[in-house]
Amino acid sequence: MAKTITVNGDERVAFHNNVDFCIGTGRMGLALTEEYLKELSFVQDIIGFKHIRGHGLFTDDMAIYQRRKDWRTGKETIEYNFTYLDRVMDAYLARKIVPFLELGFMPRALASGDNAIFYWRGNTTPPKEYEEWTRLVTTTLAHLVKRYGEQVYSWPIEVWNEPNLPGFWKDASMPEYFKLFKLTFLAIKELDPRFRVGGPAICGVRDAEWMKAFFDFCKEEGIKPDFATRHHYTTEMPDHVGHYGYQKLSDPQVGFDNLQSSRDIIDSYPEFKGMEMHLTEFNTSYIPNNPLHDTNENAAYLAYQLERLGETSYSYSYWTFGDVFEEMGVPFSLFHGGFGLVAHGCIPKPTFWTFAFYKRLQDATEACVYKGKNAVIVRKPDGGYRGVFWNMTDEATEISVKLAADAKEYTVLRETVDEVTCNPRKAWHDMGEPKNPSAEQVELIRRFAYPFAESEIAKRSRGKIALTVPVRAQGVVYIDVTEREFEGDRGFTYERRF
Amino acid sequence: MAKTITVNGDERVAFHNNVDFCIGTGRMGLALTEEYLKELSFVQDIIGFKHIRGHGLFTDDMAIYQRRKDWRTGKETIEYNFTYLDRVMDAYLARKIVPFLELGFMPRALASGDNAIFYWRGNTTPPKEYEEWTRLVTTTLAHLVKRYGEQVYSWPIEVWNEPNLPGFWKDASMPEYFKLFKLTFLAIKELDPRFRVGGPAICGVRDAEWMKAFFDFCKEEGIKPDFATRHHYTTEMPDHVGHYGYQKLSDPQVGFDNLQSSRDIIDSYPEFKGMEMHLTEFNTSYIPNNPLHDTNENAAYLAYQLERLGETSYSYSYWTFGDVFEEMGVPFSLFHGGFGLVAHGCIPKPTFWTFAFYKRLQDATEACVYKGKNAVIVRKPDGGYRGVFWNMTDEATEISVKLAADAKEYTVLRETVDEVTCNPRKAWHDMGEPKNPSAEQVELIRRFAYPFAESEIAKRSRGKIALTVPVRAQGVVYIDVTEREFEGDRGFTYERRF
Amino acid sequence: MAKTITVNGDERVAFHNNVDFCIGTGRMGLALTEEYLKELSFVQDIIGFKHIRGHGLFTDDMAIYQRRKDWRTGKETIEYNFTYLDRVMDAYLARKIVPFLELGFMPRALASGDNAIFYWRGNTTPPKEYEEWTRLVTTTLAHLVKRYGEQVYSWPIEVWNEPNLPGFWKDASMPEYFKLFKLTFLAIKELDPRFRVGGPAICGVRDAEWMKAFFDFCKEEGIKPDFATRHHYTTEMPDHVGHYGYQKLSDPQVGFDNLQSSRDIIDSYPEFKGMEMHLTEFNTSYIPNNPLHDTNENAAYLAYQLERLGETSYSYSYWTFGDVFEEMGVPFSLFHGGFGLVAHGCIPKPTFWTFAFYKRLQDATEACVYKGKNAVIVRKPDGGYRGVFWNMTDEATEISVKLAADAKEYTVLRETVDEVTCNPRKAWHDMGEPKNPSAEQVELIRRFAYPFAESEIAKRSRGKIALTVPVRAQGVVYIDVTEREFEGDRGFTYERRF
Amino acid sequence: MAKTITVNGDERVAFHNNVDFCIGTGRMGLALTEEYLKELSFVQDIIGFKHIRGHGLFTDDMAIYQRRKDWRTGKETIEYNFTYLDRVMDAYLARKIVPFLELGFMPRALASGDNAIFYWRGNTTPPKEYEEWTRLVTTTLAHLVKRYGEQVYSWPIEVWNEPNLPGFWKDASMPEYFKLFKLTFLAIKELDPRFRVGGPAICGVRDAEWMKAFFDFCKEEGIKPDFATRHHYTTEMPDHVGHYGYQKLSDPQVGFDNLQSSRDIIDSYPEFKGMEMHLTEFNTSYIPNNPLHDTNENAAYLAYQLERLGETSYSYSYWTFGDVFEEMGVPFSLFHGGFGLVAHGCIPKPTFWTFAFYKRLQDATEACVYKGKNAVIVRKPDGGYRGVFWNMTDEATEISVKLAADAKEYTVLRETVDEVTCNPRKAWHDMGEPKNPSAEQVELIRRFAYPFAESEIAKRSRGKIALTVPVRAQGVVYIDVTEREFEGDRGFTYERRF
Predict the structure, then answer these.
(1) B157-159 and B101-103: which strand pairing?
(2) C333: Cβ contacts below 8 Å, ≥ 6 apart
(3) Of the candidates A403, A418, B197, C257, which lies 20 to 30 Å from B474 by C-alpha distance?
């Protein structure tokens, strides 16, 4: 682990920090609920993502696709009901976030079979009539353009989700998915070529095979997707106990190599070289009941992910922003290992802060001056610095940092997220693990969920300031270094005692 | 310093904890301002006082007493304008606080001279016509009863402020004050005997002499005040530098003895024995520009005051709740040594938390089980405990506490306010002492102004639980001990790692 | 129609005005959604009901009853998940409303068959194991008591809904319902006799037969329900067109007579005589797609209902407070004939104001001085009056009112809800009937949804004041009459022109 | 009065509608108060002005200029305290409004004499040292630039207020004012030439003489002000009774002619031709106790003013936005004839709506299609129309309007402000003229303070739609005409009855 970092200030290290491009969410219908929207507001107020992507746009609880038989004539009418879609989109826009649309799953009335997934039974079969499907897609998109205007053309559209798994797509049939992709892509582009459409939305199972086949198909058909998509999870197989699954974290490099291999496949086609690759889902564990998600360990691991993912991928959407989620049923308890950056009651988990810290680096991402295995540092336009430090081990450490300094004095602000200072799960455990804490208990637990803040004055010596950054086990530390302008009042001496 | 405390749980120690009875404020006219009301809302939301007492009810900016000459006839009209009074009282009541009325100072149009005090020139001379004065008082009280109903009879009324100082009362004339008291007292009681009226509102200068003379006078005149009032400050003479005055804290016991002497004087009259004594002002320093007010040292010293003041006094009103204050002019900078529990921008100072912690003891004040020179502990109705610990020295210490336990396991929540964990003044200093920080800077400083929270599980052994309470230099620590009911979910093991 | 009303002031007419006892709602799971809770907040802020009753406590979206098979052992576990129940109850209590619990419908995992109702498929079959059912009920109630304390004992509990209809209860089987009632009643009373349990929750189909059989059964079994319940709807058969059903209002007296017959049946048993009868649902139309619900006609008809229902019934719960409702699917458009007092976007419908006006009468309900076919008037403790006037015809009218007066002058405030002054449906229609209006459009429509306010001064003459109350077609008018105290400022003359 | 208006739709009439450029306010120190800021928030939320201009930047309650004698050395220090200035500016910016700075009045410590104005005694004498004055001005401006950045250069700066009145400027001395202007102008431009500085800030007394002399002086001295300023009031001499002054409105044309004469004077100098002329104050009456301000008569008169003022003047700042004002003392009662667009408690007066209506015209001001003595109409980019109609007489009227129409159907929204529909002063009078109404009373009065809204559908016939706009006595009516797109749901027929 690098224990000493020296920065001359004019280094420029490549750093694609697209931390806020997109965030994941469960089924779209859940966006009608109050708890979901409270959690989303919380996340948007402090971090602020641009796009949100989740399943279930066409699942029955959104009630878009309606077939009704007239009780007198017996004639069937097909109707589109956008009441809930409009409500969800209004709620998103009011929170300054817009969708990364995933087209799926299949309305029961349009499904060709019973294959379904999750506690909420999303139908994952191909449409029984493809023309009806493309009409559903284009009618929905046209409605969105009518209501929300031209901005809709910039909302990315992904065709289906993880068709390489039989749970998500009947028989994980490649030809059927490619057919779906082609017909959907062409129908949308015919509606308006400005829409941006991509795929194949796969996860890590047989990913190279799928990625290659997908682009072969596109090449053959003369289709040029606007972007490629895949998912990225980094844990081993779970050990299931009761409602929970426990998994070990995998070696991060294995994951980065896997992403590079996807990148290489795409770039091997002259037609597609350099195409944006979006990780439309990523996280450590891929199950919504792994206690890991709620830990400081997860936060430290993610700090490293956020530093590296931009090397291969245009964007990477953490799965998910909040704990309102029903894929394996309704959670029984507060900290239940859900995917969320925040727990119910808007309690930020440690990983929330990893994202918040990287977001703050964005005002100077292009001026990255250091990027290593446990730290990234950028130089602010005002000559100061921002940095994120992390420690994926179980031992505390200290990192010595020397930073080129133009001014005599700097204010150093440091925020620490680790098991000692920011671990709401521990407070909740000490309180007896209340399943659904009262409002008062939630308020209490929230007090354990914010970084610990410290400040100091750093004075320049030989052109540099020297800092010591302590990073405890599984810790993430953020620093801000800003020139100190002194405004002291007449007669005031801070150091004078009483 | 007591390093070990053992509690059997059925001790009952006398502890008159009236921490929330009353809080001080500057000139009433300032209650029209937004910053004042924001700070008051903040204080009320977290602590919640019952009464508020300050100067300037009849000072000209409140505009109550109006003499207007008709420009045609030259005839003078006396009118009462309650627009601002109503606005202030409405604002108080909306924040669930009611006044402890101080009658003063003199409207210029009713003043007998030019003697005035403060930057805002409060006139401190006797009325030129006593009948006009009592009419002003009774008209105002009658108006309040009409607008706010019978509750007004329970608002304590104090006649004038510190008449034993020539700045506050021309020549510090005893006979003139006693005349004022008598006429005012009688006029109010004639309006309605339910009103509660007290005095002599003195500070520590020649206090015994004044207290004795006042009650001699009352006895002679057959007047029975509803309560006695005095002030209590505990610092030495200031060293003035620039805008500031620096003072040393005095020995607390000297102050407690001084209060006891007042108590004894009152109790020496059979007619007045046991009469409530209200400290209508108290603080460490009596000047609004002593940096001490903003420190952790002040917070620790106050912890001891709050434990002891109830021994002699029915109530004790900290001077003041917030930093909106103009007695020595408008403050030039954020932390300027003002009296407030909160600084501008609703930044709680360390002493704020001393009050908040004592407020939390109130649900079990009658079940005090320990009261010593650096700790007070009460037993909650549910069998748990609450305690406040403090350290008035410059050395860190640890206090061992053994508490009788009915249950097997307890959750211990600990909140620490000291120079390391809750010292907004330091963060502000490190930031360069910005005079009027921007909203963003205020938000940042506020992050350094809250107690650090920790939790742990305490298990019973031999009928007791054993805690170690670390109290750093000038620190104040609050603990809550509550039986731990375990609700753990099926399959969840907090300790299991990944 | 009474065109002249004369009040001597000391009349006392029986008037049981329990307008705010209970309000209806759709499926409980909808209470998780933001729109539902916004509408409920709106209703509670202005009207403020005490109880709320709806279906679906045990329906699967509430996720309370869980059977899970262990994937290793194959062993089935029964678990109770109260995450959503707690969230809903917390949301209710935060809005100062508590449930009138309806026990139903059947969790699929506990159902004996497939009989189901509504778009959301509530299972309406008896439990496959009655012991499992009563354990579900008592576990849920015990959980509520643990979380919310003793108040839960005062929440009325109704066993099932409309078992006299085969859609709601398989085969509308009386013996099966009586069995359900008995076992449920006994299990709850065993848990704690303080719980209050009632039935038979029937609607108007074969109501006399059911009511009689139910009480015969109770008598025989020695069971004494805490109250009786039934429903009350007052429209003819619908004419269905597209998504809508159009119905004519029935003669109110027919409905009142029907309720009286239920009352008489109950009172015919010495054991049950005088038992509270709760109308746990009532409205004009019983379908959620009748445009009538959104009209002024409905508001005027309801004004008469609210005056009369208390004659036979202890309470009467309007079905429903808001338009978040899915029994016939998700509404396609804003004004879709839903049951709600408010439409989506918190637009109050005319009928909302009928309830608001009756609520204001409650501070003087016991001093009712007039009760007739188009007006009810009460005398306030301060000597003034409040009244509600309505006009169920299509012709405008004026009502002359003479009121005994103690004071010389009164301020008369009048609020009018009719097709001219408070008809949001018309504004929406004029705007083109937008299906899901934007936030700006909603704000605009809301401006057409509040009563028109007027004021005047009434002067006493010969011991009375004389008012003229104009009531246009299908209008509802509220008046408040209060003694006018004049505070005029020196020199101000309202009448003087410029 | 024009009773028929026909619009072909492609007319383009000159209409300089700068209604939202600036709004007046009392003394700057009042901007510290809560009521002031609430009223300002209310005004900004609904209307939204860009600039705010008032007196008292340098008056002592703002506490900027401080001379302090050291109690030891006797040496005097000059200090600048920006605590309150920063607080006021922060509050303005938070409400999206920035100052139109008026430099004045004189800090007592810098004043050359005792000449003072208003209840709050603003000192109106020249500085005793001009260099001290310019240092005060430039230090203040430099501070603002440091805190708020480059936007400050765009805040207009006016030198002093109404120097042509002896109350506002000692002896109304021209040479002394010209000296003040020159030195101030030059000092500011030396600090940064980007600042925009103007004068002579006169009212209507000897205005032509002053305006001419001022520009003669500027020409002679080679000074080019950035803009000219004057005031504009349109009532006759007051009749004083008690606290009030009653005045008649003057003929509007007399005022417009007076403004034209100022315009002509400026334009007569080749150097200054076309220079912006700002009316930095205007209103009907110039006294803060004329009941006229609170009436519908004022609203109708203002509608005509707002249509015409742009013909001569770049901007026109209504004096004032709210009723927090102390020039003649603290108001005794709610409707006291104050200048405000809103009364205390954020009750909008009728004139408030005149401004709100003109603000809505701004999205199409450049497409004015009609401008007459009682109406102005603009065509919206979407092909619809907006219009304001008014009636300054005591007789009701109706205006027939024919508008060229591209579409078949239009939605017409109409909002009416007149004595019948929007007259809060009447409601308050009927309620007994409560001096300081309770929160409940204020809420009630507010219900009488909003325009009455109506809607209808207009169908095209022969290329036009025909509207009838009823305008009652002293009424102001706003209309919006928008193409009606019909979205009707299947089966819904608005007209069908029950």
Answers:
(1) parallel
(2) A83, C433, C435, C436, D487, D489, D492
(3) A418
Residues B106 and C261: their CA atoms lie apart, in Å, by: 75
CA nearest C325: which of C347, C305, C341, C302?
A: C341
Q: Give the minimum alpha-carbon distance from B161 to chain C in angstroms, rounded to a whole number.
A: 34
- The domain segmentation of chain B, as residue ranges, is 3-11+367-483, 22-364
Q: Considering only CB atoms, which chain B residues are within 8 Å of C488?
A: none
Q: Which chains does chain B touch, 3 or more C-beta pairs < 8 A? A: A, C, D
Token code pair at residue A50 = 């641009």
C209 carries an active-site annotation? no
B394, B456 contact by CB (below 8 A): no
Query: Helix, strand, or coil here: D97?
Result: coil
Q: Measure CB to CB from residue B411 to each of A248, A425, A430 and give the nearest one.
A: A430
The stretches of C192-274 forming alpha helices (DSSP H) are 207-221, 252-267
Residue of chain C with shortest Cα separation from B78: C490
Q: Do B329 and D83 touch (CB under 8 A)?
A: no
Three-state SS letters, D300-325: HHHHHHHHHHHHCCCEEEECCCECCC
CA dihedral C491, C496, D2, D7 (to 10 degrees): 50
Which residue(s) pair with B458 in the sheet?
Answer: B410
How far the first Cα of chain A sits from its last, in Å, is 45
Residue type, D256: F
Please report residues of A whose CB lies closer than 8 A to that of C436.
82-83, 86-87
Of D114, D208, D192, the residue nearest D157 (C-alpha):
D192
Question: Cβ atoms within 10 A of the Cβ of B284, count?
Answer: 26
Q: Can you tell me the distance from the alpha carbon of A467 to that of B377, in angstroms, rounded to the nearest whole number? A: 42
Give the C-alpha separation, B296 to B303, whole Å. 11
- In the three-class reduction of DSSP (H, G, I as helix; E, B as strand; rest coil), residue B159 is classed as strand
Nearest CA in chain D to B82: D332
- Verify cis geometry, omega within 30 degrees of 0, for the bond prior to A200: yes
Pick the catalytic residue: B158, B162, B307, B419?
B162
CA–CA distance, D31 with B187 (Å, rounded to integer):
38
Query: Where in the sequence numbering do the catalytic residues of A fall?
Result: 162, 281
The beta-carbon neighbor of A492 closest among B291, B434, B491 is B291
Q: Which amino acid is at D226?
A: D
Task: Identify the CATH homologous superfamily for domain D3-11+367-483.
Answer: Glycosyl hydrolase domain; family 39 (2.60.40.1500)
Say what the pTM is: 0.96
pLDDT of chain A along its 498 residues, tens only? Answer: 568 999 999 999 999 999 999 999 999 999 999 999 999 999 999 999 999 999 999 999 999 999 988 777 888 889 999 999 999 999 999 999 999 999 999 999 999 999 999 999 999 999 999 999 999 999 999 999 999 999 999 999 999 999 999 999 999 999 999 999 999 999 999 999 999 999 999 999 999 999 999 999 999 999 999 999 999 999 999 999 999 999 999 999 999 999 999 999 999 999 999 999 999 999 999 999 999 999 999 999 999 999 999 999 999 999 999 999 999 999 999 999 999 999 999 999 999 999 999 999 999 989 999 999 999 999 999 999 999 999 999 999 999 999 999 999 999 999 999 999 999 999 999 999 999 999 999 999 999 999 999 999 999 999 999 999 999 999 999 999 999 999 999 999 999 987
> Which residue numbers of D are catalytic?
162, 281
Chain B hits for D72, CB-CB cut-off 8 Å, are 240
Q: What are phi and psi for residue A284, nearest 5 degrees?
A: -75, -75
User: Looking at domain C22-364, which of 3.30.300.30, 3.40.50.300, 1.10.300.10, 3.20.20.80 is its CATH number?
Assistant: 3.20.20.80
Amino acid at B392: M
What Å distances lie between residue B48 and B21, B362, C267, D65, CA to CA? Answer: 9, 12, 53, 37
